[in-house]
Amino acid sequence: MDPKNDAPSSRRQIMGSAALGAAALATTAAPAAAQNAAAPSSGQPAPLVAPRDPQNAYPRPPFPRQQQEWPGLASEMDPRPDHGETSYRGSGRLAGRKALVTGGDSGIGRAAAIAFAREGADVAIGYLPQEQRDAEQVLDLIRKEGRKAIALPGDIRDEAFCRRMVDAAVGELGGLDILVNNAARQHTLPSIEELNTELFDWTFKTNVYAPFWITKAALPHLKPGASIIITASVQAYEPSASLFDYAQTKACNVIFAKSLAKQLAPKGIRVNAVAPGPYWTPLQPSGGQEPEKLPEFGAESPMGRPGQPVELAGTYVLLASQESSYTTGQVLGASGGSGFP
């Protein structure tokens, strides 16, 4: 990053804090539109400059009962998740960078893609063909920032597609220096007796094999200063009984970051993980939660609500940016006061 374009000194002071993950959220993910209105009665917050009580900053349960077919669409959720479409404001922290975000159509990947574009990066997003409607919205938002937006639909359970996706991203963007392995499969089942090999394989192929294939294909294109981020989960530390397969894959993602960081540090490439949970994304109504429990999703957290994807956008920007140049092999958590790390 050019020193002339560095963020204000307050951000550098925050980087010196031990509470890295919390500081990143507090300084970069908070909505920044210049309004001073109260949250509307719909439960969707108005963007504010002034600090807000995080307990009530976004919708709280109970939520309407709802269920979608896998993989689910953000555009059909009630309430609609906030990915920062109207609230995230950039400041050039990723100017000229080139990013590939898997699962970039919705949820946390969508929030990261929007934030990257508003920080000055060109962005390619991977997603399933069934998610095209959500993906089009993200691509439009990226283009409105004057950045390149590359659509890469396909199934990352296919190793050949993973290679083609990376090659297409590199070709269309003119390079690659930020890789976010975010796409995931989550499906709740009460008993191991109901979990067959096909379902177990589906989860592991999506959550463990695909990041391996994608990262291996991307590595020849990554130069010193590049950043790899993988989305893990609080499930790696506090696994739910009904997410037996998913929780195992998220533990794999944590080790992915910690081990690969040691391999790639001599190459000047950083690798980190983010461990969120619970967050209001299409994973939940499309099989990630039991339908009867979804209305109270997030109520058990100390905040009394689930997180919204925009609340993690700043964490991904921080890990992608030069500001975190000494941060590698780390897992940043954001779970509303519970879980680890």
TrEMBL record:
Residue ranges, annotated region (Disordered): 25-91, 282-305
InterPro entries: NAD(P)-bd_dom_sf, SDR_fam, TAT_signal
Compositionally biased tracts (Low complexity): 25-47
Oxidoreductase listed as a keyword: yes
Signal peptide: 1-34
Statement: the UniProt record of this protein carries the keyword Signal: yes
Pfam short name (any one): adh_short_C2
Listed Basic and acidic residues bias regions: 77-86
Family under the similarity heading: Belongs to the short-chain dehydrogenases/reductases (SDR) family.
Keywords assigned: Oxidoreductase, Signal
PROSITE patterns recorded: TAT
The protein's name in its UniProt record: SDR family oxidoreductase
